[in-house]
Amino acid sequence: MKLWVNICRVVLAVTFILSGFVKAVDPLGTKYKIADYAAAMHMEGLMPDVVALVLSVALSATEFCLGIFLLFAIQRRLTSRAILALLLMLTPLTLWLAIANPVSDCGCFGDAVVLTNWQTFWKNVALLVMAAVVAWRPKFMFRFVSQSNQWIVINYSALFILAIEALSLYDLPMFDFRPYHIGANIREGMQVPEGAEQPQFQTTFIMEKDGERREFGVDDYPDSTWTFVDSRTVQTSQGYVPPIHDFSLTVVGGEQDGEDITEEVLADTSYTMLLVMPHVETADDSRLDLINELYEYCTEQGYAFYGVTASGPKAVSQWCEATGAEYPFCSADEITLKTIIRSNPGLVVLKDAVVIAKRSRNDLPHIDEAQAALPLERLALGQLPATDAVAEKILKLLLWFVLPLALLTFADRTWMWTKWLRHSKKKSRATLPEAPDAPLAPEAPEAPSAPENTHPKK
Known about the structure:
The chain is built from 13 helices and 9 strands. With 458 residues, the chain is an alpha+beta fold. Helix 1 (2-24) runs antiparallel to helix 3 (49-71), helix 3 packs antiparallel against helix 6 and helix 4 packs antiparallel against helix 5. Residues 437-441 and 452-458 have low confidence and may be disordered.
């Protein structure tokens, strides 16, 4: 039973740690998913952006910390019951998602692992069973760290995950699991490979004859004596959907108003800068000087520069009047823009349909006078990272989080072992049998006494 409890405990811990971490590195993505849930439940008015963001931060931090606490068996009874209560709330929710299908992806693991709603439900059922086993016998979980040092793990884990979320909100997600990551080829991401599963549709025809109406399929379509009334087509299989299927740019305003320039941008073998603003009404305008520098640099070097937004022409016109922007604007889908970059505004550098660089509003590049005369090929902004950024980030995580906890565990177990040894030695000494007393020396024989005078003196 102890073995099963600890197996369930490890699986639950790893799942919660992974789920919490991938949400923490992309808090804006989790916020968007929470907003989707609110819209599906017709609660948009009760879920402002600030509330959704707070819930996103709290949810990811809670999941991550619960996973760490369960892994280290910290507050075993309280932690196991908290995880059981959380799963008891989430499992019915995922059942509703599976049946009603208001949101295509639950977002349990962010964009790192995409599950269908039914896969999510059965995953939660399995986790719920394991959580019940752990909560039933929490004392069977062995500890990695003694109770006296558990406060270190608690505080360090909480501070670590909150720092990750703060950095991801200030800049960009540490890990980009979306199809528009640096190095991705947008054109290739839009292609459907040969032999891929095609979407399937079923068409039903409603026909009438002699006042009787019946439904027929394609295979049993009736003869000409029946009169066509109506038809109904239902998609029965989605088929293969390419990772990028909604990237489209349409010019807003000017002589090219309404023109689709998607192919022109992707076919450009030179550089193209996209200033992505899902909504210009809420875009941060504190970096206008850097944005204008980039536009002037692109104009001098002959690179294309576009502002891309989902806002309407009126909002675009107001932005240009308020900021003095002279660069052209394009229209794109709001969800696509939020997927491309988690910043408003954010800068995306393309070259021959490849994403070369992405910068948040807090990390826009500064083009000084010396750099303004150089082509983008000679600047860091125009080059793909030379090293594997993912491997480098994983190494940093190992050094900053995993290694300190591993050293703490080793030191704690060593200290507990030496303490146990000292206690065992003291106990063994206390229970040793006493040494027998030394034998007594033989007594010397007494000297013979003089014979008593039996005759009294006269």
